[in-house]
Amino acid sequence: MASRDIIVIGGSTGAVEALKRICSDLPADLPAAVFVALHTGRHQNDLLAGVLGQRSGLRVTTAKDAEPVEPGSIYVAPADRHLLVMEGVIRLGRGPRENMSRPAVDPLFRSAAVSYGPRVIGVVLTGLLNDGSSGLAAVKQCGGLAVVQNPSDAAADEMPLCALRSCEVDYRASVSELGKLLGQLGREPAGPPVPVPADICLEVQIALGRTIDAPGLSDIAQPAPFTCPSCGGVLSELRSKPPLRFRCQVGHAYTAEALAQEQEGSTDEALRIALRIIDNHATLLERMAADARATNRNKSASMHEERAGELRRHSETIRQALLRSPE
Fold this sequence. Notes:
The protein contains 10 helices and 13 strands.
């Protein structure tokens, strides 16, 4: 019987320090392959593998496309590529970003779940928002194990907390315990295979770069009254949940929390633009009122002054809303 020999790890804020400890604690004879995806900037230098390699007895490399998977190795996602593992081979996807990130945690988890099912151990580390929740749920749906860093031990507890709500988690542990725990779980026999949901397979193909049309998207989602922050297209609400998620026809994907964060920035910008336009219009009306007074056109002056005062009140309402909005 196969063992649990595929370990996928995801995180963001604070995860580099957590990974250093985990990699140093993993046994040098670990009979599993480890895959790491952290949400980083698209122009981030691929230095993480070197940092982790200094701490680990395992081979640590930046993943390369079409590279065969070998046990006892740690593969780190390169910048601006989704790291996917498919039937014994690494694939680097140029598919759309998820939660504004590429690489993203969820595509890695889904790809492992589709190809390896109960052989997978999914690990969600410290981070903001709820990246990794959907992928961890996919790992569980396909028979794998779900492991989450203890939120009280995390530099940013949002990802662990959301992961705990997304599925029935098998283990919750501190960073100081995770390396030893994964070493033990990586030697256990895997359970029997289970059917893989078609929607998870489709999302893996999207991460790999497959285009998706409206009929294809309608198989896994239903139209929602929101627009995609990345391309302006119509978003559809994915039927599989938790967490609540959305995709557009281009393939950009967002959890509700990530979408709300992006909309917050757009709303703030729109309010600032509106404030500038209203203030400019009010100033112009005040100038027109003064000009009308100077030429004894008092009725026109009163009309301009009244309209300018109305605009100034609107302007103050928007200004107060901006002051109350989160940074």
